[in-house]
Design a protein that fits this description.
Strand order of the largest sheet: 2-1-5-4-3-8-9
Radius of gyration: 16 Å
Strand content: 15-25%
């Protein structure tokens, strides 16, 4: 798995609407990459709904949360509609098959899917958090939100330090 401190590999993938999402296009904003194995499964559904439920919190912290799996764009579109995702972007790491998951070191080559993992990219396009989830478990978004808050508070403190 990719290590914290490393530059985030840039990528461009289509979302559930067929629009291109390019990571470097979000420079200046933090991006939470939520890798999941496959659409239409119970655990992956809970994982993506958790992103949707925390959308406002992420936005308030200057972050955007993205779901990524090896499913195709039409599959992502149908799944997003079926589970009522309105604000969460779902990316299709379909071709080259799992290429982004491979670049981030979270591709399970035996099963041909991404592992369940969360990677946070800072506004300078560096990895500040990378963690695999336990099998069958949903990533702990409160841990991610706490990290984003802590970074935000540190940034505010740096700005407010009086210059001597």
């Amino acid at each position: 798995m990719i290590d914290t401190g490393e530059p985030a590999p840039d990528f461009s993938l289509k979302d559930q609407h067929g629009e291109i999402f390019t990571l470097s296009g979000y420079r200046g904003r933090r991006v939470v990459l939520s890798f999941h194995p496959l659409a239409w499964t119970e655990t992956c559904t809970r994982q993506m709904r958790a992103l949707e439920e925390n959308w406002q919190e992420f936005d308030a912290l200057g972050a955007i949360a993205i779901g990524i799996s090896v499913d195709s764009v039409p599959c992502k579109r149908a799944w997003a509609k079926a589970i009522d995702l309105e604000m969460t972007t779902l990316l299709a790491d379909f071709w080259p098959h799992g290429g982004v998951a491979q670049d981030y070191g979270v591709f399970d080559s035996e099963r041909g899917v991404a592992e369940r993992a969360t990677v946070v990219v800072d506004e300078f396009q560096h990895i500040i958090y990378a963690k695999r989830s336990e099998p069958g478990g949903v990533p702990d978004l409160q841990e991610v939100i706490a990290l984003l808050r802590e970074e935000e508070e540190s940034r505010v403190e740096e700005i407010n330090v009086p210059k001597i």
